[in-house]
Amino acid sequence: MPVGVVVRRLPGVTRWQKWSWRPVSLLPGAGPADWTVLREEGDAIEYHAATLSLELHRADTEAYLTALSDKVPSLYVVMRPAEETEHDVPMDVMLLTASAYEGQDYADASDVMVEKVPMPAGLIAWIREFVEAHHEDEVFIKRKRDKKRIDLIEDGVGDPRIQQLSDVYRAPNRKPKNTLQ
């Protein structure tokens, strides 16, 4: 499903950052966009920055359930500063995902910005319907210990496959006390 990302530009709060860029809303079914101005209020400007394809995969239904179970169900928008050759485009909107796990993976990287953006009701229903159709609970199977006996006595020779000239558990030789170092 194509989803448009709306990014708001506000004045920066420090002298080192002139502008603050933050994704604020989503437009399900939006057409193509390239930083189209949607609204201006004083210094704040909202852009339809990009339209990305939101893809859902059957293997990620558990991650979608995690995102839907948040207090405010959200999609994750991944952005990075645009290349210096593109002066008119300030940020590159890289990815839009409904997977909470993928969003967390990108949040661990230092060169990108990851923001949670609340989902509109139509997207919540679409993702919930997909999860209900494809989710299969994985049964937890506790691993059992092997039947190896651990109370046997070790004879102090170490691994029998490695030849040792002496006992592997011996104390290291002491240096004589009359050495300079």
Task: List low-confidence stretches.
Answer: none
Report the span from N to C terminus: 73 Å
- Succession of helices and strands: EEEEHEEHEH
Beta fraction of the residues?
A: 25-35%
Instruction: Please identify the oligomeric state.
Output: single chain
Q: Using only CA atoms, what is the Rg?
A: 29 Å
How many helices does DSSP assign?
A: 3
Arithmetic mean of pLDDT? 82
Q: Helical proportion?
A: 10-25%
- Spatial strand order of the main sheet: 2-1-4-3
- Could you say which overall geometry the principal axes of the C-alpha atoms support? elongated
Largest sheet: 4 strands, antiparallel
Query: How many beta strands in the DSSP annotation?
Result: 7
Structural category: alpha+beta
Question: What structural keywords apply?
Answer:
3 helices; four-stranded antiparallel sheet; alpha+beta; about 180 residues; three-stranded antiparallel sheet
Can you offer a commentary on this structure?
It is built from three helices and seven strands; from the N terminus they run E-E-E-E-H-E-E-H-E-H. The chain has 181 residues and is an alpha+beta fold. A four-stranded antiparallel sheet has the order 2-1-4-3, with no helix packed on it. It has a three-stranded antiparallel sheet with strand order 6-5-7, covered by helices on one side. Strand 1 and strand 2 form a beta hairpin. It is elongated, with a radius of gyration of 29 Å. The N and C termini lie far apart (73 Å). The mean pLDDT is 82.
